Each structure stands twice: as structure tokens, then as C-alpha cells.
UniProtKB/TrEMBL annotation:
Record's protein name: DNA-binding HxlR family transcriptional regulator
Keywords: DNA-binding, Transcription, Transcription regulation
Alphabetized InterPro entries for the sequence: Alkyl_sulf_C (IPR029229), HTH_HxlR (IPR002577), SCP2_sterol-bd_dom_sf (IPR036527), WH-like_DNA-bd_sf (IPR036388), WH_DNA-bd_sf (IPR036390)
Secretion signal span: none
Residue ranges of domain HTH hxlR-type in the record: 18-116
Annotated Pfam families: Alkyl_sulf_C, HxlR
A molecular function GO annotation: DNA binding
């Protein structure tokens, strides 16, 4: 069977038939992967994407979204009234990249140069929970933990040794933490006590504090690679 030659109109390409090389053709430009990351938990407006991608310019974000749209990874649509705003979202095929993020994140966290104190977005901290979750530590735990970052609510559910994260109302959560993503990272991965941030008015907790303490014990950063 004769293979079809696909011609790309723009962009830097590796001109290599390897699937991994073509993957880099699709998502290898700077910021592209992070744009995809921010769409992992549902549609986003342009302004919200730019807000959570620290340092990206409007021009570069536009270019990346256009490139990902041409590649079939991202699509855009207009929300119905009363919102009537344009949003970007991953296509079903686009969502299939999620395991790549989990493997890449877990691998890179072992780098001695990884700095967990750098800025982190709400979506990123949620995705990190799925990456760093230790089912053996969780055992038979069953809990729902809510997080509120500004006007964005998220829910993390742990049950039967599995973890799921999603955007959504926190009404049914056993405990709800209202703060900013970097402070959650400090509590969960840096094991900083909640009280340290509560005392400064940087974090509020409603519900069962013991549930959050147990939740935080299910996550640990991996040991650094011997390089």
C-alpha cells in the first residue's frame, strides 16, 4: 500500500517518520504543552488561559491556539447565551495526551533542578494530584476534598484506590480549602501545616480538618535522580 505524503504549510518540522518526532511536530513549540495542560479540565476563555500561563504574550498564545487547532488537538466554540463567549477546548483526540502529561510530570519531578516553589496554576495542581497519588498509601480511603481558587471550584475524589479530579461545586466535599494553588502545593508536597497560612489569612478551611491531613499524606514528590 502506498503511503500518503502529508505536506505541512508552516512551522518547523523534524522530517522524521518516527511517531515521537511527529508528536514534537504537533506539540513541540514552546508553550504548546502548557496550553494543552490548561485545557485538560474543560473549556477555557482566551483571557483565562493567558492569566494562568505566566509570562505568555497574547500574540504567542494566539499562535499556539491556532497551531493546535490546525493540528486537530484544540477546537473553539461559542457558548450559548447568556455567556455568549468564545472558548477553546481539547478535541477527543486531544484529551488522549493526558497519560503523556502524567508520565512526563512524574519523570521531571525527579530532576534535581525542579523547583516546586515556582508558580503553579489551578489546573496544574489538580493534575499533579493524579500524577503523584500513591494508591498504596490511600488504601481503602474514601473522601471528597474541595478546593476553591478565586472563583474556580475543584473537587478531588478518592475511592477504591483511585483518584479523580474535576471542576465543580464543592457542596458535597468533606472538607473545602480556599486559597491559592502554590499554597496547596506547599501543604501537600512541602508538608507545611495549614495553620501557617491560616494564621496569615491566606487560607481558610471548612469541614473536617482530619480529612485534609489524611488526604495530604497520600502524595509525595519522588526521590531526585542521581545525576
Amino acid at each position: 500500500m502506498k503511503l500518503e505524503k502529508i505536506t505541512y504549510r508552516a512551522g518547523r518540522r523534524y522530517h522524521d517518520a518516527c511517531g515521537a518526532a511527529h508528536g514534537l511536530d504537533l506539540i513541540g513549540e514552546r508553550w504548546a504543552l502548557l496550553v494543552i495542560r490548561e485545557l485538560m479540565m474543560g473549556p477555557r476563555r482566551f483571557g483565562d488561559l493567558r492569566k494562568d500561563l505566566h509570562g505568555i504574550s497574547a500574540n504567542v498564545l494566539t499562535q499556539r491556539l491556532e497551531g493546535l487547532e490546525v493540528s486537530g488537538i484544540v477546537t473553539r466554540r461559542k457558548l450559548p447565551p447568556p455567556a455568549s463567549v468564545q472558548v477553546y477546548e481539547l478535541t477527543p483526540w486531544g484529551y488522549e495526551i493526558k497519560p503523556v502529561f502524567m508520565v512526563l510530570g512524574g519523570w521531571a519531578a525527579r530532576s534535581p533542578r525542579h523547583d516546586p516553589t515556582l508558580p503553579i496554576s489551578a489546573v496544574s495542581i489538580m493534575q499533579s494530584f493524579e500524577t503523584m497519588f500513591d494508591a498504596a498509601l490511600a488504601g481503602d480511603a474514601a473522601m471528597t476534598v474541595g478546593f476553591v481558587f478565586g472563583d474556580e471550584p475543584f473537587v478531588v475524589q478518592i475511592e477504591n484506590g483511585t483518584i479523580t479530579t474535576r471542576r465543580g461545586h464543592t457542596d458535597a466535599a468533606h472538607v473545602v480549602v480556599t486559597t491559592q494553588p502554590p499554597l496547596v502545593a506547599a501543604c501537600v508536597y512541602g508538608k507545611v501545616p495549614l495553620a501557617a497560612f491560616e494564621a496569615d489569612g491566606l487560607m481558610t478551611l471548612t469541614g473536617d480538618r482530619a480529612v485534609f491531613d489524611r488526604f495530604a499524606s497520600f502524595f509525595n514528590l519522588p526521590e531526585k535522580a542521581p545525576v
